[in-house]
User: Fold this.
Amino acid sequence: MDAKFYTDRPLGLSGTNLLLALGVGLGSTAFLIDWLTGRALNNLSLALPLLLSAVATGALGFWAVPLLRRLKMGQVIREDGPQAHLQKAGTPTMGGIFFVPTAVAIALVLTGFAPSTIAVSALTIAYAAIGWLDDWQILRRKSNKGISPRTKLALQIGFGALFARG
Assistant:
């Protein structure tokens, strides 16, 4: 009996399975590190902010993703690219607009607005702004071309240098 391979379905994990695998993997790793270092669910815990951020982002996602769809903030896919990519057309982009501020706010609150957390949060917001600018250019131009890789790298280096200097 010959084995038949069906190519009409994309290979790999589905989005839901990938989300579950990532959540279980990251959650387990955070809890393991907390347990090994004796920081389980205290103010130095890795798992607590991860868990809070996941729940808050998931809750915001139920509101934000439909809003992004209504605002037509969907992926633009090249017609000449792989046919499997065409199924991503219209998938909301700019997801960082709701999960980055959530994670930053939780980090700031849990650390009592520690100066080092404020600095890392500022860098995170700056890098998120670069991503937003890239996504905005893609949507504005209705093309898959955002800001140029050179511009993106220059912005990242500039913000990184400001962070390292401070």
